[in-house]
Amino acid sequence: MAFVSVQFAVFLLAVITVHFLLPQRARWIWLLAASLFFYGLAEPVFLIQILAATCLSFWLAQRIEAAPDKKAKQPIMALGVVALTANLVVFKYTPFLNETLRSILGMANVTYPVPELQWLLPIGISFYTFQLISYLVDVFRGQQKAERQFGVFALYVTFFPKLVAGPIERAKSLLPQIHANPAFNRTDALLGLQLILWGFFKKVFVADRIAPFVNAIYDNPEAANGVQIMFATWLYAFQLYCDFSGYTDIALGIGLIFGYRLTQNFNRPYFATSIQDFWKRWHISLTSWLTDYIYTPLTRQRTFKIKLFNLMLYAMFITFVVSGLWHGAAWTYVVWGALHGGYIVVSLLLQKRWNNFARAMKLNDRPNFYRALKISVTFSLVCFAYIFFRAANMGDALHMVASLGTGWGDFKANMLSVVGDYRNEFFLAMLGIAVVMGAEILQDRLDMRKAIEARPVWMRWSLYYAGTLAVVMLGAFYGSQTDFIYFRF
């Protein structure tokens, strides 16, 4: 059931209505039933799978907590992590590994008898797997008590607003809220509705309107030149951001209506002044997860005796390769992750030289210019990596990178060729990007939500109605349904 659909609107309205008609102590049970229905509606067999993973994690966490010491706890925790990881690998990576092995053996002229493997990817498996792994590790570390109510734990795993594409919630954040059985809060509910409306604006007014321009280039990269590829990739940066952050806003907004505060996942990422800063602002719940469960353990290992700084660099690069693999079972995602890891490693190695260069050029004496320069460089590096993230395969990605130097002799004509005859749609897309980025600039100076709440009632509701009309009347529905990009991960 896609978020951008009449079916979901009816489902959500029904869930909210029944939720607040029920006694407060029974509401979490209704939310669990609604979440299981939401997930099972897509593919019932996947409901069995997620419940099996939930049951295993619930049981193992209690065994970990009951074990007498760390030595006894460790194999139980390891069993859970291996089982959950194996489940993810089998369903998400087996076809990729099969084709990779076929290619390697093919280069050696060895016949590979296993046919191409294709099966459905369970929705949200990357997200709920990481969530369950973090829960088991936190119980092992003594940072989280093992949950004793299975229903509460199942709701923590399957809560429908965040189930498909995050945020990746930690047990210490969400479980206490479920136990609290929050009552209706008018302020939170209104804030939730604002977030939902803002999320839908980002998705259907901006992201889905940009999509055809991006698809026209990336679906036929052989016919594109460097200017067209550059422009389409720039557009894709805003498509991806508005799509993913739009989903997150909707998820956070729905959570607030029910009284749950989910994790913020974005903080103006395209205003980052470095790649390190970008990853503190982009997909924050994933960055936090990778830091706590991949990067930090790697830096504390004692197997390899190397300098701490070098160990940090290796750990950083490995962490970003894992991030790439988490995003998708394809070499394009691995390269995308490796590029970001490489960016950070190189920046750390050259940091002193860059600081000396900045002082020599007196860039610190012009802070606004220097900040704008760093933002521009960071955004350009992010966009270059997006070529691999968006390309259909490595062949397309490498061809597009090799073509970046072409087409610059007729820059304007090549730019306009991406727009084609759809100038009105492109104008609306640019208007939408300006609204989103403008709101983020203003957010740096004042709390937009508090500023809106401070306005008179007639002004606030006029703004809400105008936003709703913009989504309904000017949304880029194009007669078809467009899923959120991160639904594939």
Automatic annotation (TrEMBL):
Sequence intervals crossing the membrane: 27-60, 76-97, 117-137, 308-327, 333-351, 372-389, 426-442, 463-480
Pathway the protein acts in: Glycan biosynthesis; alginate biosynthesis
Molecular-function annotations in GO: acyltransferase activity
UniProt GO cellular component terms: plasma membrane
Subcellular location, record wording: Cell membrane
Membrane topology listed for this record: Multi-pass membrane protein
GO biological process: alginic acid biosynthetic process
Main localization of the protein described in the UniProt heading: membrane
Record bears the keyword Acyltransferase: yes
InterPro entries xrefs: Ac/AlaTfrase_AlgI/DltB, AlgI, MB_O-acyltransferase, MBOAT_fam
Family to which the UniProt record says this protein belongs: Belongs to the membrane-bound acyltransferase family.
PANTHER family assigned: ACYLTRANSFERASE, PROTEIN-CYSTEINE N-PALMITOYLTRANSFERASE RASP
Protein known as: Probable alginate O-acetylase AlgI
UniProt organism field: Hyphomonas hirschiana VP5
